[in-house]
Write a structure and sequence with these properties.
By secondary structure, the protein is α/β, with parallel strands linked by helices. The protein has a single domain, classed as HUPs (Rossmann fold, 3-Layer(aba) Sandwich), CATH 3.40.50. Helix content is 42%, strand content 19%. Strands 3-2-1-4-5 form a five-stranded parallel β-sheet, with helices on both faces. Helix 1 links the parallel strand 1 and strand 2. Helix 5 crosses helix 7. The longest helix is centred in the middle third of the chain and has 20 residues. The radius of gyration is 17 Å and the shape is globular.
Length: 180
């Protein structure tokens, strides 16, 4: 029998990522597992924000922040993560599940892999995105990169996918909150 005690589900706070979160919540409830909801703040995102205090962030981006500034960024993002879950995921779906928010600074794929190892998760649930054929030819998706390096199985959820509920109904993953 497969034992799933810990599930990691990355999010970028998008509506599309809710499909993976809802699916992970359902699996966590079925298996009595804890859920780590994860968000990575990448250096590119930090640079793209063009913070007035840090106009010349280069490859040593983290070293240029004032002491404590990165901790504040992580704390704020963790509060955003909790708020996102409270606002976007129905309480009934979250009820009875140990949910731990995780926020880290760094390259997204590297941080997902590191978090999966550190939490000793048994499964990573990720929302996959529809990409053009050219996009697939030029670069691999974050999900593909995680699949290649993950220390555990990775379940890829497409936001448009349909699932079967315990009542035998087929519903869109986006409608999962209505079917549970």
């Amino acid at each position: 029998m497969i034992k799933i005690d810990r599930i990691l589900v990355p999010t970028d706070f998008s509506r599309a990522s809710l499909a993976g979160i809802r699916y992970a919540l359902s699996l966590a409830k079925d298996h009595g597992a804890g859920l780590f909801v994860f968000h990575a703040i990448s250096p590119e995102i930090m640079r793209d924000r063009a913070w007035e205090d840090y106009p010349h962030i280069g490859s040593e981006w983290a070293a240029r922040f004032k002491p404590g500034a990165l901790d504040e960024v992580v704390r704020n993002k963790a509060m955003d993560l909790v708020r996102f879950l409270d606002e976007m995921v129905e309480p009934e779906l979250r009820q009875g599940i140990r949910i731990t928010p995780l926020v880290r600074l760094g390259e997204v794929v590297d941080e997902i892999i590191a978090a999966a190892k550190e939490t000793q998760c048994d499964l990573i649930v990720m929302t996959s995105r529809e990409r053009s054929w050219l996009g697939r030819m030029v670069t691999s998706s974050l999900t593909q990169q995680v699949v290649r390096s993950a220390p555990c199985p990775v379940l890829s959820i497409q936001p448009w996918a349909q699932i079967r509920t315990d009542r035998g109904e087929r519903v869109s993953i986006q409608e999962l909150q209505l079917a549970v």
